[in-house]
Amino acid sequence: MVENEATPCQTDRPKGPTSPRERRHEAILDAAEALFMDQGYDRTSLAEIVRRSGGSLATLYELFGNKQGLLHAIAVRWRDETMQGRVNQVEAPDASAVDILMGFVRREIGLWQSPRTVALLRMLVSEGLRDRDFALQTYRDLHLPFIAEVSALFSEWAATGKAAIDDPEAAAHLFLSTISGDMMLNRLFGVEDGMLDEAQIRWRLQPFFSHFRIA
């Protein structure tokens, strides 16, 4: 069970008219996520989700396939709301490459402090351990798009002389591993005093900045 938070669909999702099918899709996702967070993925039945969201079990199967499909759809929605476009959010016109990356670090720290993030990733890990295909799909759909985004940024910097990065994809993996590894493990295991702050992460990144001539 997670602490009460504002539901992202109420705060972060772009507003605007949607079709009845899209509204039904979102209503089912909202109900499923709320129940998964409140009583656990394994203890939540599809019948409960339908009762909370309205509609029918047939519609749920049509849109998501099964409960695992629902969990995956919730994860993809979370990715779209919180992660895509987070790397190259320039906070000032004259921001340096280091400023851009440290801005991302601040957003990443905030993300890992979210009970929703931790609860969702615990469910994904648990289900992934039971089903390798689900684990691979989760990796492809949540992690690899983020690697691609960072790689594209590093490729741009290499092409314009802002950094000396010979393998942008490998550098992206290294960057994300450096900043996320400890935070992910500590939060997933509930080790609150093991969380790194921005200064500690900056210290860890100094060899990365130096090696790739990022300034």
TrEMBL record:
Annotated source species: Sphingopyxis soli
Keyword Transcription regulation: yes
DNA-binding region: 45-64
Comp. bias regions, Basic and acidic residues: 12-23
Protein name as annotated: HTH tetR-type domain-containing protein
InterPro entries: Homeodomain-like_sf, HTH-type_TetR-like_transc_reg, HTH_TetR, Tet_transcr_reg_TetR-rel_C_sf, TetR_C_Proteobacteria
Chain residue ranges for the region called Disordered: 1-23
HTH tetR-type domain ranges (all copies): 22-82
Keywords: DNA-binding, Transcription, Transcription regulation
Transmembrane feature ranges: none
